[in-house]
Amino acid sequence: MAKISVNEAEITIIKVQEQDYISLTDMANAKEGESRAADIIKNWLRTRYALEYLSTWEQINNPNFKVVGSDHFKMQAGLPNFVLSASEWIEKTDAIGLVVKRGKYGGTYAHKDIAFEFGSAISVPFKLYLITEFQRLKEEEQKYLGWTAKRELSKLNYHIHTDAIKQNLIPKELTAKDISII
C-alpha cells in the first residue's frame, strides 16, 4: 500500500492482482469530507457517461464481464429513481475495475484508468494533480527497483566471480596462506 498527496489530501493506492488501484473514497473525501464520500461515488456511478466508460473499460480488460447487466444499468441512467453502488455494479456485472474493501483500510478502489476518470468528477485540476503525483510515485518505484535489481544481480554473480578468480588467476602452487591473501 502506498499513499500520495494530492492537494493536501492523502490518496491510498493498493495492488490488486499486480495492478494499481486508487481509492475513490479518499478522492471523494478530498472534495466533500468523509460524510459525503459514498454519495459522491454513487452520484458519479449513476451517470450515463460513467457507465459507458466503465462498460467499455471492462469489455477491454475483463473477459468475464456481463454486458447484459451493464446494459440494464445504462438504460436506467439519468432516471430520478436510479441509484447504483459500486458493490451492486461489481455483483451484477462481474466487474474487476472497481473493488470494495471493508475494514481498517476499507473503501472503494478503482483501477488507475478508472480512478483518473473519476478525478474529473472531483475537479479537472484535481485530476491533473492526481496523474502527476501518481507518475512521480511510479518513477520513484522504478528507481528503487533498479537499485534492487543491481543488488540481486551482484549477489547472484558473486560465486561465479569468486570461482573464476580461484580457477584462472590464482596459481595452483601457492600455499593456503598465500591464497587467502590473494
Automatic annotation (TrEMBL):
Domain KilA-N: residue ranges: 1-137
Protein name (Swiss-Prot/TrEMBL): KilA-N domain-containing protein
